[in-house]
Design goal:
This protein is an alpha/beta fold and 268 residues long. Helices cover 35% and strands 24% of the residues.
Amino acid sequence: MATKRPAPLLNGNQLSLFDADTEPAAVAPSGENASRRELLLGLHRVGYELRRARRRSIGFVVGLDGLRVSAPRWVPIAEIERALQQKADWILRKLVEQRERARRVQAARIEWQNGAQLPYLGEPLVLRLDASVRGPTWAADSRVLTLPLAADATTTQVRDLAQAWLQARAREHFEPRCAHFASLLGVQMKRLRLSSAQTRWGSASSDGSVRLNWRLIHFTPAIIDYVVAHELAHLLEMNHSPAFWQVVRSVLPGFEQAREALRQESIG
């Protein structure tokens, strides 16, 4: 007599996506237990990778490489695809979001050369190379950053010098904003460090240390203020509870708009 298997659970914790406040969900690489499949979700034919694993639940992850599904070895394909149909709206929405995210990342790629454009405080900045100048020179009216490099400088030279200038501007901008929000919140920030993290815009420690990703200098002052207020609020509430969000709201009413705008951005 065959042993009856328990019904698999739909693990909602695996319905993961990338955003500015959480690290990307870890996705196991393809292996011998993985296979490529397709199914029709609504009017859309969707490809997905199915990976068999030792687990009790069916998990879904929508990432930059598409839909991945993990399921117990004993769950039949028909049951897995019924679970996918149940989550069809969510899956299709997240696939569209990831596709748009990939387009934004591609559009934001910077060609480190003379005439390149990159965002600085939410507006375009133009790079100019001129070996005759003695140091990086910023013309605010024309938004041109002139670097002391020859026209045939390598992309690495251009990138490193431009990013060094941006990091210096980041500290200049972040420090007074940190002081502003620390005063409003009644907290003491003991140390500000710039971060180059690939998965986080900022972090705060209970000892009063705050890290802010220098790449925030690409974004508007409103988005920077949101991240600063967010991290300093953690000095009062080391969590993301309703109490924490109320602390943020107390110094930055309407922060949700900047938070949502940041969630559409990528760290690159």
